[in-house]
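Page 42, continued from yesterday. The earlier attempt failed because a stray header line got pasted into the input along with the sequence. Redoing it now with the clean sequence only.
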Amino acid sequence: MTRDRRLWTRLLRIGLAAGRGTPGDRLRWWALFAAAATVALVVLGTVAAVATHQGREQRNEARGPILTDARQDAALMYREVLDTVDEVQHSVLYLVPLTDDAPLPPGLRAWPEPGQAVLSPELAARGRHLGIHDRYGESTGTIGKDGLAAPSERLAYVRPAHAPARDAEGWWYAEGFGKALPIGEMVDQRPVTDPLLTFWALTGVPALALSVIAARVGSLTRDRRSGLLHALGAGRRHRALVQVGEAAAPLVLGTLLMALPQLAASRWDLRLPPTGYVLDSRDIRAAWPTASAGLLLSVLFLLAVVVLTHRAPRDRRSTRPGAASSSVPHWRPACCGLGVALVVTSQYLPERNALAPFALGTVLMWGFLPSVAALVTRRVGAGLAARGARTGRAGQLIGGRWTAAHPGVVVRLALAMVIGLGIVAQLQVWNSRLGEQAELARLTQARIGDGVLAVQVTPMAPRAVDAFARTLPDGAFLLKRSTTYDDQGRGSTSLQGSCRALRSLDLECPAQLSPATGGDRRIEEIRRWSTPDIRVRAVAAPFGLTAQDSALVVAERGRLSEVKRAAFAVLATAEPLGDTWASGAAGKARANNWVLLYGVTGLAVLALTGGLGAAAEFVRIRGVLAPLTVLTGSRSVFRSVAFWHLTLPLLVATVVATAVTAWHSLFFIAAAGEGSVSWTVLVAGALGCVLVALLVGALGARSAIRAARSWRPTAD
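This time it went through. Structure tokens are written below.
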């Protein structure tokens, strides 16, 4: 036992020494360091997402009102409405205590007085320029973190100046708080698997690609070392110990590096650009045991990748050290085909169940597409070698044979380009999913701004409506809007109000309902968001509003804050025409910011992957090509070999990736029913890959030429 322990220790020390030996090994050290940091980032991001999701649910359950039908036993009345600040919706929660000991919602230290409001810190900061501090009443204090799903949540608790009647419509009755009733931003809470699937697809897949590339950097030297150990009688476990010792230091240090952001996030609330979301440090602190286990598992996972991707001699009858030529296993193209099948079949599943197979299929397709490209280039390489032999072109012959014998090189170099092109295309398609109604809302607000506001109110008597109209700012008028439909489904909208209100729209003042003739641009937008048939009538006496009616406020631009203040004073809401659609589109754009965060991170990892793969290939090619200068008497052969072995396979991979990217984007748009492909972005990405292919070939040739100048034969 002691003897085995000494042997294992010696093998680990051999691996540690080998890890800092040749230039290729030093490059591999940094590659493994970067891979460990990236995989740890993915692991910690996953842990943080799960912990944040759980923390949000716990805080929402603590603040959710416990509704009751027994009004006489209720402790408070409750009502929730929506408002917007800079196209970001937030909840306004009206609370009316009915007993002296009515329980407080989490985050409040005391009940606000009638006519007062308590805002979340984020809402108070973001809405300051829009008069948010007196929009719902006098603002007093802020909501504590215990009452917020996240520190960045926008929320307002309001106690009306005048308590509603016990039988008022639109109100709920509650005994207290502590039920999982979604309020605030938790209304749109999606399962944690949705963001995680996107995160894994856009950042996790590039991290896996970097891990594989890092494990194979400098593979020629390690394959020969493995052959030597095999010749000396070392078994798989012995070779694995050397490989573990070689990779342990960079993997542990890279993993520990990512523990620093975890420490910072558990100490302070951190805002994630460009999403604007603030992580709650309490959630991150609570997840430290899971995060520590995740970091340990990430190191073990990478050690397994290093061992499993290490080439072992295939011929067990021979003990001669050698480096096996790389090949593409048949299961890799099969996995790519499986991914394509999952993407295609996902459109036939219900929308809620389609995301998981679509995301998994996308990951498989993009992860193994370079292997398909490698198979194509292998056949191309064999044809090039045969043509070079017939025509006597040494560069084409050597480059073609290398490409046919080492298609794995193409996989490693093309991986970053192929996945990067797919990520860029998906980011563009996701960000283009605006929707027709949202686009109409944006156009309406661009034409008339806040010149027409839709007011949602509970039924109001004429006296209350008249009081509301009198609180509107100068130049703002209230109109009653009613829409009816005939048996054929044709709608007609009537607008009723004072002559001053109608004339502000450049309309006449008929005593009876008459078709609207003339009018300014605002009438056209009202038609767009009501019915084409608009009829108007001038009324002298105040009018009432029923549950079937709505109201419009027509005003000059720039009076939105004043109208909102007047509306919330009577427990109503006021929004520009189409604002619900515009806010929904803005919310989708903010959700796309998460895709942008994951995608940009993934692109950075892919850029690092491509750079490391190219650098490793330069290290290999310069030593192998250098002796050719003696055989050919010319260094121009280096440029030819580099073109046929590096540039051409990458160009083939670019063509394959561009075609698949276009198909994948169009298929996604057809399945989602919205979005568009920017062919400019796709062509620009393809041209970028072409430039990278040319640059890699040029740098490979240059590296070989520089090595040839100082090359001397050695006893190898």
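Notes: The longest strand covers residues 76-85.
Reminder to self: strip header lines before submitting.
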